[in-house]
Amino acid sequence: MTSPSGPSRRQVLVAAAAAATTPLIAAAPAQAAGPARPRTWDLTLLGTSDTHGNVYNWDYYRDAEYDDSKQNDIGVAKLATLINQIRRERRGKATLVLDAGDTIQGTPLATYYAKQEPITATGEKHPMARAMNVIDYDAVTLGNHEFNYGLPLLDLWIRQLGFPALAANAVNAKTGKPAFLPYVIKKVSLGFAAPTLRVGILGLTNPGVAIWDKGNVEGKLRFDDMIATAAKWVPIMRARGADLVLISAHGGDSGTSSYGPELPNENPVALIAQQVPGIDAILFGHAHNEVVERFVTNERTGTQVLLSEPSKWGQRLTRMDFTLARERGRWTITKKAATMLNTNTVVEDPKVLAAVRAQHQKTVAYVNQVVATSTVELSAAESRYKDTPILDFINHVQSEVVGAALAGTAYADLPVLSIAAPFSRTAVFPAGDVKIRDVAGLYVYDNTLEAVVLSGAEVRAYLEYSAKFFRTLAPGAPVDPEQISDPAVPDYNYDVFSGLDYDIDISKPVGQRITRLVLAGTDTPVADNAQFVVAVNNYRRSGGGNFPGIVKTQVYNAQQEIRQLLIDWAQAKGTIDPADFFQPNWRLVREGVPVF
Predict the structure, then answer these.
(1) Alpha helices in 72-208 (DSSP H)
(2) What SUPFAM superfamilies does the database record attribute to this sequence (predicted)?
(3) Is 105 in a helix, a strand, or coil?
């Protein structure tokens, strides 16, 4: 059993089995180009990442087949078809399949078996374990979202897998020992009479877990620097016989972080390749980018390290191909390259669909339950740049829950503000029946509700930081709503407040944009020393997005999921009417003139 106390006997046996008793994968030698050239063989690595609970090519929020403007498809069932095709094409040759993490969170399917019918209560096999076991991966790396539902559920999911789960830099906080398997070494056959190739696979998870899931891991797990961890384990793997070293890392390659400097770098993959010798290739994820093939030169050895990231949700499959030669008793890589395959070119694998069909159908039935009736259509399409009723719905529910919880406490007389972000540009509450999937489509993350006390000065600083979301546009310059935001700042890192009235002047420099901040419904400026209770999600309160002033002791934390609070409110009221919660209180301006 995987637990924060370190690898169990079972894990050690799994590692030993992966290193010593893995069935040999036969590989036919590649044709030599000429009699003078050494004999060569080939190895193919197939990589997935950030599947986020997608098995079927299905959009649970629309109750329809998934579709987007680029005709992408999604889901592990599509990935399985590509993987099986390549395995068939390479029958008799060596093929490994890895995943770089963020697997068990991200869809109503994943949420259902974590919250509505949690596998920890029912003992049922998780749909992502069912799907991935059909594919028969060689290893999966733990992503940061694997920790969203707590360590007991993560532990059970790992035990349900038929292959190792890796996370070398997740360390037991008390013992300092690895909490999960750091790596495996697989024996790969390269043909008749050829020496065996030993492939080392190191898994690295994201240090941001310590912030984003602080409530689940604090005091239990420590998340070490990914670069330092690779520098520690790669030599060990080489010393234990790894001829080829692959890293499966849940971190991007930008070298930047969405959180502050108090934790190791969130996206250090290129730095790992550059600074740590002995690595041949890195499959990575987390940033949801499509990086087909990137080479990074190791500064100590001059080796070209191959990097690839296969987008998100099962839209792409990375393929890395290695040509190997045996020289002076050692394996060397004579050539390596990566390509990317698109899952919209294939149909879904029937075996994967069958393995998860009952769970998929149960989830579809659940999300199509009607929870309320909306008096008008409410859309999130403009929520990034206009005050919309649908975002106020979130803030109203959050404020109401926190206000009721603090009644009769020392904070009861403080005004309650609320923060929400426009997570979705496509969410809609239709006029008429509103279903669970409509609410889930508005609030797509599994965040819980918390509250802290902020001063007026802290609120202003927070709003100034949030306002960096917008490009600077001079008065009179044309405004394209689709281009109004800085592409470097994701929508989920733009927050709006309820409970105060304010203007954001996008003609002014970042840090000088909150030109009006007054008490709600008045012209009274917010004093720096004023005190407010602020309802906020756990991701933001823990430091996600590196917003100033928000990381402090909670005055409310009942571990209630915000999505469920929204559903409960709608069910209790029966009617969703903007008149009950819409309070226009912020706007974009340029020199005082509204932009919209």
Answers:
(1) 76-89, 108-111, 119-122, 127-135, 151-160
(2) 5'-nucleotidase (syn. UDP-sugar hydrolase), C-terminal domain, Metallo-dependent phosphatases
(3) coil
d(CA 186, CA 23): 9
Q: Helix H segments across 323-388? A: 350-367
Q: Can you read off the two tokens belonging to residue 91? A: 């029958």
Tokens of 30: 């590649």
Q: pLDDT tens digit string along 478-530?
A: 999 999 999 999 999 999 999 999 999 999 999 999 999 999 999 999 999 99
Q: Which residues contact 511 (CB under 8 A, 6 or more apart)?
A: 464, 468
Distant-in-sequence, close-in-space partners of 117: CB < 8 Å, separation ≥ 6? 124, 362
pLDDT tens, residue by residue, 21-75: 333 344 444 454 445 567 889 999 999 999 999 999 999 999 999 999 999 999 9
Burial (Cβ within 10 Å: 0-12, 13-18, ≥19) of residue 173: middle
Q: How far is CA 107 from CA 383, 426, 495, 537, in A?
A: 22, 15, 23, 19
- Write down the pTM of the prediction: 0.85
Q: Which residues contact 367 (CB under 8 A, 6 or more apart)?
A: 60, 61, 63, 108, 435, 436, 437, 440
Among 487, 493, 471, 500, residue whose Cα is nearest residue 420: 493
Closest CA to 495 of 523, 472, 453, 463: 463
Q: Tell me the DSSP string of 520-567.
A: TTS-PBPPTT-EEEEEEEHHHHTTTT--TT--S--SEEEEEEHHHHHH
How many CB atoms are located within 10 Å of the residue 65 CB? 11
> For residue 277, what are the β-bridge partners?
none
Tokens matching residue 394: 């979130």
